[in-house]
């Protein structure tokens, strides 16, 4: 997927498309009026722009996505981490999780994901970093 930027309002629109596709443009206009309080002209402007950028296609008045929600989420996440955290995934996780209370199930799921993606060695490094962060915050190490 090329580097495609989807702005906030377009993302709300795309969520409707992904949830309902394929759908007629008239039906989409009504949905956007109901869900987003958009006028018909706004909906058609967004359709035109997203078609030009290769995000959706309109064929015989039927709208369908050309990119998946997951593709956009992945790209947006990477861009956010690069911009805000200088590309450091660890800095992102530390920032995001330091004030979150995760259940043991959520922690186990995250460990499985990290283990699948980068192997056991990366998981162990993450656990060491996690322990170091707790020590820095003055918390007792339960591991």
Kindly list the characteristics that best describe this protein.
143 residues, mainly alpha, three-stranded antiparallel β-sheet, 6 helices, 3 strands
Judging from the principal axes of the Cα atoms, what is the shape?
elongated
The run of helices and strands is: HEHHEEHHH
Order of strands across the biggest sheet? 1-3-2
- Can you give the helix content as a percent range? 55-70%
Total helix count? 6
Largest sheet descriptor: 3 strands, antiparallel
Radius of gyration, in angstroms, nearest whole number: 21 Å
**What structural class results from the helix and strand content?**
mainly alpha
Report how far the terminal alpha carbons are from each other.
41 Å
The total beta strand count reads 3
Q: How large a portion of the residues is in β-strands, by DSSP E? A: 5-15%
- Low-confidence segments, ≥5 residues, pLDDT <50? none
Mean pLDDT: 87
């Amino acid at each position: 997927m090329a580097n495609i930027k989807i702005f906030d309002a377009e993302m709300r629109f795309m969520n409707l498309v992904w949830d309902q596709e394929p759908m007629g443009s008239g039906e989409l206009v009504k949905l956007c009026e109901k869900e987003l309080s958009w006028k018909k002209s706004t909906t058609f402007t967004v359709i035109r722009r997203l078609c030009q950028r290769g995000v959706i296609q309109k064929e015989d008045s039927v709208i369908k996505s050309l990119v998946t929600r997951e593709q956009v989420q992945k790209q947006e996440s990477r861009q956010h981490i690069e911009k805000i955290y200088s590309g450091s995934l660890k800095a992102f996780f530390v920032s995001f999780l330091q004030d979150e209370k995760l259940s043991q199930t959520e922690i186990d799921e995250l460990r499985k994901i990290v283990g699948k993606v980068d192997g056991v060695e990366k998981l162990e490094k993450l656990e060491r970093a996690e322990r170091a962060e707790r020590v820095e915050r003055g918390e007792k190490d339960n591991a």
